[in-house]
Amino acid sequence: MGLPSTLCYILLATLVAPTIIKAGVLPILAHLYVFCFGMLAMVTLPVAYATYAAATIVDAHIMWTR
């Protein structure tokens, strides 16, 4: 999503978790699901803003950082 962790969770907990809960999933599991997959946006394409931070820390070229 390209958002900070807290904001990403708040957004997904507001928009996605209620739908999952209405489908019959326990509320705690629904929130863990949206948190886990919301945080995956930091390390997967197309956003992957964690790779920009990692490349800067190790002084690597951003396109070669995976």
Give a verbal description of the structure.
It is a single chain. The protein is mainly α and 66 residues long. It has one domain. It contains 4 helices and no strands. The longest helix is centred in the middle third of the chain and has 13 residues.
Structural class: mainly alpha
**C-alpha-based Rg, rounded:** 15 Å
Order of helical and strand elements: HHHH
Uncertain residue ranges: none
Mean of all residue-level pLDDT scores: 86
As an assembly, this protein is single chain
What is the domain tally?
1
Largest sheet: none
So how many helices? 4
Head-to-tail CA distance between termini: 18 Å
Secondary structure: number of strands? 0
- What is the molecular shape? elongated
Helical content band: 55-70%
Q: Strand fraction band?
A: under 5%
Overview in brief:
The protein has 66 residues and is mostly helical. Helix content is 61%, strand content 0%.
Question: Which properties best describe this structure?
Answer:
66 residues, mainly alpha, 4 helices, 61% helix
Map the helices and strands.
Elements: H1 5-15, H2 17-22, H3 27-39, H4 49-58
Helix pairs in contact: 1-3
